[in-house]
Queue: 4 jobs
Job 1
Amino acid sequence: MSDPHEEAHTGPVKTPKQFLAVVFLSFVVPIFVIIGLVHFIDTQNKPSAGADNSSEAVAARIQKVGAVQVKDANRPAKTGEEVFKAQCGACHLSGAAGAPKLGDTAAWAPRIKTGYAALLNSALKGKNAMGAQAGGEHNDYEIARSVVYMANGSGAKFAEPPPPVASN
């Protein structure tokens, strides 16, 4: 009698040549797939979200924290009008961010009533939407002259501040 189990063990691979081809491809195909994936991932430029890796951006990120500016302490002080045009006029001519306009006596009246010292303090340290003006392009004396210029142009009668005394 013949064994009935021998016919049941047949599959798609019938010859040793087919068997070697299947074994070879089962090792080679995954290797090429892995190489292709690594190449796909490695060659694409994928910076982090919002990151700019250009040489200018890297230089900006690694620059020194502080900088020193040397200003000529002996330069002539700018007038109140010059400082107003250079720094204050952007907001105080248009009324941006609630700034009182130059010449608007109704808007300036309550501010003028607080006095020159309060106005100067607000200008140097900032108030509401106006940032601090001290430590910027103009020195405190020039800012004080600008405060007097704006207030006097809007109904005040403040005297010009005296120039700072040089310290030895």
Job 2
Amino acid sequence: MKSRPRARDLGLAIGALPPGPLNALTDVPGVRVGHVTLIAGDGPLVPGVGPIRTGVTAIRPHPGDVFREKVAACVHRLNGFGEVTNSEQVREMGVIETPILLTGTQNVPRVADAVLDWAFARDPEMGVTTWGPSPTVAECSDQYLSDVRGRHVRAEQVIAAIEGASSGPVAEGGVGGGTGMSCCEFKGGIGTSSRVVPAEAGGFTVGALVMSNFGRREHLVIDGVPVGRELQDWNPPLSQVPPERLGSSIIIVLATDAPLDPRQLERLSVRAGAGLARTGGLYSTSSGDFVIAFSTTNRIPHVPEAPVLAYRQMAESLLAGQNWPAAPAINHLFQAVIEATEEAILNSLFAAETMVGRDGHVRHALPIDETLGVLRRYGRDVRGPA
């Protein structure tokens, strides 16, 4: 079966900065992504048993030992109706020391426990001569499509996602942690994108990966076009059942090879909210909207060799010889975050396929033909089906 197109495949070039070779989080050197998808059973919900539409996504900031060689990081709260485990420690210490895991809400404790199993198996000194790691696990609710009482993600699946994480293209849509997610009343899930800033700003790469589970159809905006409003009355053929108005969260993961400290990563994370807003996100009252950001360049050894460490840091003021109103180089990173986040969300929609879950609940895929028709009426030069 032919896979569904990404936004850029259809001529939607979001923003102005160029994407990296894969247009994915993995364009940032060293970053790896892995998924395990769990789909089983059909029909009425049997609490604790199924049907199952869930999974887990693992993001490794670099291929080495993240506990022994931590990365500068931050967790930013856009809206707090949700969970990122150990976020207070990340804010306090400014580092992440495990792979980042994305999953369904009720899976979080088991996923965090599995990360500890994985880490302890790799390092016999953890909890003996040094402290143990603090897992970073983020969630959105997949309750509309999946049995959540069963908490079906087990340790073996978490470990498989971590160990199977790769640096190549990233699967999108209803995969991994995004398996049971919804976006703007369509099928959502995992999406990713990247941007490369100009050479005069360092030539750095910014990547975004989202787990989209937010929004109302009428609020969906694609490349500035009110597509959701135009499709407000769309129903799939032979269907008169309107979609349930559930799903209101997003996790955004940002990675960059720019040498940023935690405060600067926080500044980037704030701009991710602008990318979410461009697609119609409202940070609604029951929405868990979080940004997890890290730099692969500034690494912090678990056991430093000296009391003072030296790191490079991105400049935030004008460069020598520049006069106002020239833009500081970090502004290019802000732009990259906004554009990559926006396109990652759109890719999560375009890539996702229709899914039937518990109790016959359906999340239909974004209708490509109808969406392209709306975009053309608004003057967008898109390609694909008529």
Job 3
Amino acid sequence: MKTVRGEQVSSAATLMVFCIFAMLAFSVIMLGALAYRNISGASREGEDERGCLSYIWTVIKNNDNAKNVYVGDFNGAPALYFEEELNDTVYQTVIYHHEGWIYELFAMDAYGFSPDSGSRIIEVGDLRFERLDDGNIIVSSGDLSVFIAPRGAVGEMRNLR
């Protein structure tokens, strides 16, 4: 069978156009996957920060007495302390940030424990606490902040951005 040179050129050109189209399609798919990964990563970080603040707000509201909730220092890191009395013994619950995680520790005297002694709760970049003069607390993680009034229904959760 004899082939004509024009058919060979036409076949080669068709194959070349197909290869260019395949490379462009692959590039578009890879760019889309990269954009999706970046968006989902940013979304996940925001969810962790919001989840962290919601968790702390709930813990404060469950320990609904301003005099039993205070901000202090736990092994060099800012921490949120809750005190409660059970069977004539005072216990402390401490929420603090250590090595990229929020920890919670429940003990009779939390000052004698190391940061690794608590239970890991959620992974977040940072966590800050500030107690205002009126007893209200501002909790911040990343770009989000929450104002909390630890006195029953008076407290509200609002974004302070």
Job 4
Amino acid sequence: MVAVVEHSPGATDDRVIALSVKEQRVLLTEDKDFGQLVFAANRESAGVVFIRFPASARGTLGTRVLDTVRRQQDRLVGAFVVIQPHRTRIRRLPRPET
């Protein structure tokens, strides 16, 4: 695991996506912009896990994320995953056009 804030502080979203592809790391984020980048902009991605938790459910966030990674680890690469307090959705990412 690498924290972008420690590895590349101030990096743009495009740079973060490029780093995740280069290092073949699934991106874990609370930033909705990454969904836009990988779907609408069709950017290449190793995978994105988008965390969508309201303040009232933050106490269970760590457990839900770890549980999802343990149970779905083989499905995270090349996917856009949305983790919510009581639901997880996994969608394969489109392949970028070359």
